[in-house]
Design brief:
264 residues, 5-stranded antiparallel β-sheet, 8 helices, PPM-type_phosphatase-like_dom, PPM-type-like_dom_sf, 6-stranded antiparallel β-sheet, alpha+beta, 13 strands
């Protein structure tokens, strides 16, 4: 049985930011979110360049991915994004230091490849149980892992936004990569920390389970994040694993990737 993704994507500037430094893309088989690093030069350029690299990967790959190493393909796209950031910063000194988080999912029938760097997250809702698939590359997550603070303390820690890993011009990326089985009925959420800085796991779980329509869930998550103060840009993709064939879904770009023109 061939499987596919039925997805929806949305992005919002939030209530505290002047511009949207998030970018996202969703197609029939590739989902990606990049959160340009706030406080750094031109995070919107970094995120848009990164999403462009993943979109180009989607275009390059053959229709049949059975012989494709999904993790290697995603890692290659991230390396391409790093090259683009470095070249752009080399041409424009004002862009030096720009960086972004990145998460991506690539589907081949019943296989899902996943990539993660930074503190944007991938969640899986399966059989009513929510799992955070990714683990944040942050100072506070490292402190939690070492037992020095609790997960609850991490939510209000003054260094909760400090990244240990990200995609940054002039640096070799070190993503986490994995592959999972795709199962009909699975629901995935890819989101920037504009969602998770406001909503805890229980709220995310409730929103994901509240509606069968991915688009309705995306809008609900954005609304809830804004109701919670909207302290950051908000971007999310909700995708259901379904039996294919579905009507072919063209690529949708959101955030900075849709607003600014970038070239490799």
């Amino acid at each position: 049985m061939a499987l596919g993704l039925r997805s929806a994507i949305g992005s919002d500037v939030g209530r505290m930011r002047a511009a949207n430094q998030d970018s996202g893309a969703a197609s029939a088989r590739l989902l990606a979110v990049a959160d340009g690093m706030g406080g750094h030069a031109h995070g919107e350029v970094a995120s848009a360049l990164t999403i462009a690299a993943f979109a180009d990967l989607d275009d390059r790959l053959p229709a049949d991915l059975h012989d494709v190493d999904l993790s290697a393909a995603l890692a290659g796209a991230l390396a391409d994004a790093a090259r683009r950031l470095g070249e752009r910063a080399g041409r424009d000194p004002g862009l030096r230091g720009m960086g972004t988080t990145a998460i991506a999912v690539l589907l081949d029938d019943n296989r899902l490849g996943m990539l993660h760097i930074g503190d944007s997250r991938i969640y899986l809702l399966r059989g009513g149980v929510l799992e955070q698939v990714t683990r944040d590359h942050t100072v506070v997550q490292a402190l939690v892992d070492e037992g020095r603070i609790t997960a609850e303390e991490a939510t209000t820690h003054p260094r909760r936004s400090v990244l240990l890993r990200a995609l940054q011009a002039g640096h070799e990326p070190e993503p986490d990569l994995c592959e999972r089985a795709a199962i009909v009925g699975d629901r995935y959420l890819l989101c920037s920390d504009g969602v998770t800085a406001v909503l805890n796991d229980a709220a995310v779980h409730e929103a994901l389970a509240a509606d069968a329509d991915p688009a309705a869930v995306v809008q609900r998550l954005i609304a809830l994040a804004n109701q919670g103060g909207g302290p950051d840009n908000i971007t999310c993709v909700v995708a259901d694993v379904v039996e294919a064939p579905e009507p072919e879904q063209g690529r949708v770009l959101v955030g900075a990737a849709a607003d600014i023109a970038v070239a490799g």
